[in-house]
Amino acid sequence: MGHYSISDLEQLSGIKAHTIRMWEQRYGLLRPVRTATNIRLYCDDDLRRLLNVATLCGQGRRISQVARLNDDEIARAVLAKCEDAHDYARQVNALLAAMLGMDEPALCRLLDEATRQLGFEKMMLHVAYPLLQRIGLMWLAGTMNLAQEHLLSHLLRQKILAATDALPPIDAHGTPRWLLFLPEHELHELALLFMNYALRARGQHTMYLGQNMPIKELGAVCQTYQPDVLVTVLTTQPERTRVGDFAQALHQLCPAGRVVLYGSLARQEGLVLPPNFVVPPLMTDFLTWISEINFAPVAA
Q: What is the pTM of this model?
């Protein structure tokens, strides 16, 4: 069970702390415990209820009406269809609440409904990624349950794979070739999977090698596949002090093409990279870049 301060609840729900206190005092919405120093601490059930209540209030319902509902009634109301497909905050809150409750059917239904309303790519950009950012805040606060995070990550991975598999095949002849992989010991795959989907959806040919790929194994692959672009995501690997050496090794594999480094380790201050490297800060920057890239060889 998580233990959240009121500032944690404010960050995760988007509801101001003074509003949370008012709802708690006036309607008994939450039931915090108090520490020996009289600080309120909230549990997963409190956060889940607050997220669901915020979702319903965001749809125009009065807090006085919502507060009279029990948890099951609130959950059913949240899962009811919302006509505003672009109410991203509502969808993120509903998904986060379902994750906290380990409610896999609700997670699937909410993701499928968002995809139906928005299309898969917009669902990922406007719903899934903000949700993952919220989860990152929970990690920083030390309130994230690993099982909850694994459940959501596994479902998102399934959705990306299914969406990619549904795309038409791409002919490698006459089409730019992209080789996607994660460094050795790197296991955080969602961003790379989505990049692979986005490239395939734009008619690019990709070879996806996935997690934990030693760089020494890439030489033979590059000789055979002859990629125009290498793409990798650096979340936890390699070690921060070894990113420069890793980049130089990739440059040797693809000296005339492009190399995309995505992730926080690629954006560290003072990192010097070869001229053929691209470091998009955000996924939207990557999507813009792939629509504008000129595949003429880059000077070494």
A: 0.75
